[in-house]
Structures are given as structure tokens and as C-alpha cells.
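Summary for the funding panel

The consortium committed to producing paired sequence-structure records for every protein in the target list. Below we show the first two records in order, beginning with the earlier of the two.
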Amino acid sequence: MSDAAEGGRPAAAAGGKARRRNAFAGFLLGLNAIGTVWIFALMLIINADVFGRTAFSAPLPGVPELVRLSIVGIVFLQIGHTLRSGRITRVEGLSALIEQRWPRFALLMQAGYSLLGAALFVILFFSCRPIFVRAWRNGDYAGVEGYITYPYWPIYLILLIGCACSAAQFFAFAWNETSRALGRGAQAAERNLAR
């Protein structure tokens, strides 16, 4: 008899986990899409600035500040999805050799690396949170008052969201790698939480 036929509790729990994973993946994809649209809009603004500067000697105001802030925002909007998709640059020479000889140890080593990555983003999150609060309360901004200004707090908020998402993804990697190394959740390993 299947789990669903015997009350469905394990099947329902697995379905709930899958929905949470899919919701998280969709959220990361949405952030990535916002970052992509932002890149396109920034490209148009930079081109308009260059055209205005050369053709009419009239550059758009505040473009350097906007670009400076946008780079940080775009990176932290897209880092979670990039990490989840496995497109973060890695050197796997040593890991591949260890994996061939001691596959379980290699998985535990990767779980350790994932925990270190999560710790880095947690530290960054808690280090930047007071900066966000200060920028929000004080109305800190980039630019020249009376000319054009951009508030800092949205960028710090994006940074906090990116850090939280990246830490959560690293924790998911660590959980998946540890489960596979200890032989638990063979089906979950096949589905691979990292995807």
C-alpha cells in the first residue's frame, strides 16, 4: 500500500517540502529576473547618457551614482539564483580527486564548505543590518542634494535579502550533501535540493 493510501502523511510532508523548495526556487528566479531587467534598464540609461553627453553636451544627471549603487543591487539580486544554479566559479580539481577515492568524505567536505558559505552570508547579513537601519532612519543618500539623490536603504535592503537567500541556499546544499554522505534520503539526494 502506498503512503497516500495509508493516511498520506509522509506523502503530504514530502509534497509540502517540494512546494517550499519550488517556492524558494521561484523567489530566487524572480529576484534574478528583476536583476536582469535592471541590467537592461541600466544599459539604456548609460547609452542615453553617453549619447546626450556627446551629441548635446548634456549628460543625464546622477548616472555615475546610479551605476555605482546598481552594481551592488544587481549582484545581490542575482547571487542566490546563480548559487542555486551551480554557476558560481569553483575550483574542483582536489574535490574531484577526493570524490573518486572517498565519495562520502568528499560529500562531507562539500557540506563543510557549504556551511562556511552560509556562515559568511549570515555574518554579512548581521554586519549590514545596522547599516540598513541607520540609512533608513537618517535618510542617507548618494548624489548631490538639490541636484539628484538616491537613497541608500533600498540597496542595503537588497543586500540583506541576497545574503539571506544565499545563506539559505548554502544551508540547503549542506543538508543535501550531509544526507547523501550519511546514506539518508537517497530519494531526496536523487531529487537534489540544490536544483
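The next record, for a separate protein in the list, is shown here:
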Amino acid sequence: MDEQLNQNQPQTNPDQNQTTQPTSTQNQPQSQPEENKKNPKEDKDIEENKLWAFLGYLGILCLVPLLAKKDSKFAQFHAKQGLVLAIGEFFIWIPFLGWILGIFILILWIMGLINVFSGKMKPLPLVGEMADKLNI
């Protein structure tokens, strides 16, 4: 009987002279990560400029959003990545090496379009780093 009473009472550590309470994680509030919350201004920019960002991935048409939508971070981001892909397209005419590059560019192009229509500003592998360095 004494053992049952001792299990429900707080335990003391003789070395620390402190009482420890059994912890329960059920009562702790779950915090939402701050990174999931977006700025309404950015949301408006994304929704209004998806078409412009889409144009950024259509070869030489990437110059249209670069010149026409200088105030849109979303359109500029995707247009710069599209410009790097368009420059890479000049090298697909090299036999064998260019064909491999062409397949790689096609995959990156599809990834970029998926990012545009899902409203993400996610940099493409290799291309994103080069596009960040462009100051247009």
C-alpha cells in the first residue's frame, strides 16, 4: 500500500534537495513556426505576377518581366533564373555534351514552372546561385 502512495507523490533527489514533478507533454501548447506565415504584400505580389514569372521561363521572353516588372520581386526572381536557362540553351547544339545539358535544362525548366504556379521563390539547383548574382 505504501508503494502505491509513493508512486503518486513527487520524487525527491537526496543530492539536490529539490522536488521533481512528473512531466506531461499533453498540456503544453503547440507553437506554430513563424516561417509559415507570409507577408500579405508578398502574397499580393505573387498572385498578381504569376503570368509575368511564367514568361520568365520562355526563352528570350525572360527579358519582358525583367524590363517591365522591376517592382515585383517574384517576377524578377523567376525571370533571372529563366535568363540563365536561356543562356544555357545556346550550348545544347554541341554534340553529346549539349544534349545532356538540354535534358538538364528541361528538368530545371519544369521545376521552375512548378515553383511559379505554386507561388514559391525557391532557387533552382546551380541556376539559382548564378541568377542571384545578376544585377539587372
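Regarding this second record: The chain is about 55% helix and 5% strand. The longest helix spans residues 97-118.
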